[in-house]
Amino acid sequence: MTTLSPRSAVILGTGSYTPERIVSNEDFAESLDTSDEWIRTRTGIHQRRFAAPEEATSEMSCKAAEAAIAAAGIDRSEIDLIVVATMTPDMPFPSTACLLQSKLGLPNVAAFDLQAACSGFVYGLNVVSGLLLSGRHKKALLVGAEKMSSILDFEDRTTCVLFGDGAGAAVLGVEDCAGKGVIASLSGADGSQPELLQQPGGGSALPPTHASLDQRQHFLKMNGKEIFKLAVRVMGNACKDTLQQAGYSADDLDLVIPHQANMRIIESLQKRLDIDHSKFHNNLHLYGNTSAASVPLALDEAIRAGRIQSGDLILLVAFGAGLTWASTLIKW
Ligand code: UT7
To answer: What is the model's pTM?
Structure first.
């Protein structure tokens, strides 16, 4: 067991936001060769939310952040770091975190985006915890937000039915509380197979041209079968390693909040860890895969539903394009 640090990064409050527009599986069946039955049984998704055309990632981030600040009960001027995890920024630059900083009215506060695709929020939690423990920052706002509908190919039934839009946020601080807060974490990556899940066009490798747009290169592309297998393996290993770091076993967990990508992936993870499904909090059926927003959306929902109590042992785990993976063990 690792020695417990006398100081820990703690989550002081969470918030979330999902856009108004609900898109059902049947809505896709009107324009694509798909069905509610296929989507439900192969993924567990019943519906998702799509942002309005003018509603960018920073807008959704701002609503989730306001809710998290209110839940934390702090004065927003105490925040001295803003990190936004997203792969669908408002624009390549400036960062969505800078746009959010201005919307929140927090001039001069350090702000940057973190790109680890669907693992972004959990990666961010691990990075921000380290920055807080270093003493360089005292209170941080971490947001996971995505407008996935802006990069989906609505002619590709193998990907467009899977994703949704939304934002989740947490305010973090440091407390003198040995054994509480973030007690173990792990972040990893394997960049050897980027083609498994990527948005090939629009960056410096393939800047947007009429040809790249005609070839639909600016949309998300995925090899779902391969990602599925890797997801189960890397999330399973990440969970086991993180628990081991803190000297806990899967039996000790009160709640697991996994990345919400596919219910069959989550069920495979449950089997691999030998944890009953009742110890998992899922909302995939309502929102689909919201990428970096998925874990904080589910975390905020679980807190507001009273599923997380003081003293509970909570494991957050995610995987995503890169391939990236991350997990965080929190003693609440
Ligand atoms: O955050 C990380 C992001 N990604 C993921 O986590 C995704 C991981 N992968 C998955 O969730 C699953 O692999 C999918 C849901 C994407 C696909 O499920 P699958 O069971 O692996 O299906 P498949 O790719 O093997 O396709 C089976 C069949 C194919 O037809 P044929 O070749 O057997 O005739 C597909 O063309 O299902 C077809 N199919 C569809 N049919 C109706 C694929 N998408 C659809 C669809 N509606 N939307």
So the answer is: 0.96
